[in-house]
């Protein structure tokens, strides 16, 4: 069974020689090199409101370097704090 055509083709018309595609939104001519990456990137950057491949806002995002390497309390500090809280409550 052949793969389904990409959704991006609803915004483009392929040329007769199949080496380029014309954007139906702005008439730009995009080179084809075997896939739809160029077409997808054109839609993403030139027509963001037509881009259906945007990640939804509730999707978890990758942590930044600042988040990954943020200072964290050492395990001894955590234990000391827990002991101090225990003594205060006792």
Task: Give the gist of this structure.
With 90 residues, the chain is an alpha+beta fold. Helices cover 32% and strands 11% of the residues. The chain has helices spanning 37-46, 65-68, 75-89, and strands at 12-14, 20-23, 29-31.
Keyphrases for this structure?
90 residues, three-stranded antiparallel sheet, 11% strand, 32% helix
Q: Care to describe what's here?
A:
- It comes from Dreissena polymorpha (Zebra mussel).
- This is BED-type domain-containing protein.
- Keywords: Metal-binding, Zinc, Zinc-finger.
- Residues 3-54 form the BED-type domain.
- The chain has 3 helices and 3 strands.
- The chain has helices at 37-46, 65-68, 75-89; strands spanning 12-14, 20-23, 29-31.
- It has a 3-stranded antiparallel β-sheet with strand order 1-2-3, covered by helices on one side.
- A hairpin with a 5-residue loop joins β1 and β2.
- It is rod-shaped, with a radius of gyration of 26 Å.
- The chain starts with 11 loop residues before the first strand and ends with a helix.
